[in-house]
Amino acid sequence: MSTKKHKSQNPRRNTIFVEDAEILINASYPGGQYVLRLRSPKCAAYAQPGQFVHLRCDPGLLMRRPFSIMRVSKAQGWIDIFYKLLGEGSRLLSHHKQGDTLSLMGPIGMPFTLHSERPRTLLLGGGVGMPPIVFLAERLRLDRDFMPLVMLGSEIPFPFAAQPSRIIVPGIPDGVIAAMPLMEDWGIASRLASRQDFPGCFDGLITELSRLWLDRLSIAEREEVEVFACGPPAMLNEVAELARNYHLPCQVSLEEYMACAVGGCAGCTVKVRTEQGPTMKRVCVDGPVFDAEAVFSCRNLASNGVTHSNGGDGA
User: Fold this and answer.
1) Distance of CA 44 to the CA centre of its chain
2) pTM of the predicted structure, to 2 decimals
3) Count of other CB atoms within 10 angstroms of residue 169
4) By C-alpha distance, which of 161, 113, 134, 149 is closest to 70?
5) Which CATH class is domain 120-304?
6) Class of domain 13-108
7) Quick one: DSSP state of residue 198?
8) Rounded CA gap, 178 and 75, in Å?
9) Domains in the chain: boundaries
10) What does the pLDDT look like over 118-130, one tens digit per residue?
11) Is the distance from CB of 48 to CB of 107 less than 8 angstroms?
12) Mean of pLDDT over the chain
């Protein structure tokens, strides 16, 4: 294989870095949730919404853990990740303090792809699937005339203090006013959903809330909508069905356990429909972003007894 061809098939080959990342902030929130800010200038310079990093959570821990990128500052050289206490890696990570350094590899993976013919973007995030949605919302705020609509779901307290939204969204029920403060600061409409009776939140699933909004759009407006989502598999299955019912393109960022995160071990493969038929794709390098229909037409989560979640349990 020639060098020229090899490079064309790997456009991000020279944009994955290994850095000793300094911890700037490791803030805790209710429900065993944390936001970690790391000084990682090379990663921050190249990261795109939907990509992730592979982090060594502790010098004594051999295996790295994957974490979606939530925010970046190219100018200041930092990235934010959001994590929840789920196992030994996240437990050790939570003990680290400002000034500690951790080995970071990233950014990794295929990012979300924006389409100019679909300027009305609906962004859906559940639980620990919220970070790519926040990252994408910030990028859309800077790059687009149409502001996105962001809906976030959780069955545990949100990792921020919700505030009443000042932005009116047609189709949203009266009283559903809880919003993410960061989105409000950016001028982006957001709404929160939960079945835990949190004040101002929609009592139900984010897909149910999305239907209310979509039903208020005209046919012409709906033809301008594209859906982007990240969350637990059962939630994404519901999002894929939502997009199918409304004939909307939809991209999903999958969450899978990863060992190497660079495609060598093939331990994170999922079945994906292609023009040549179903095939196995590696989430780490072929994703984590995929076309929703391509993935979920190959799955039948309902037959496995999986129920939909707003994502509070993590994925």
Assistant:
1) 17
2) 0.89
3) 18
4) 134
5) alpha beta
6) mainly beta
7) -
8) 31
9) 13-108, 120-304
10) 999 999 999 989 9
11) yes
12) 88
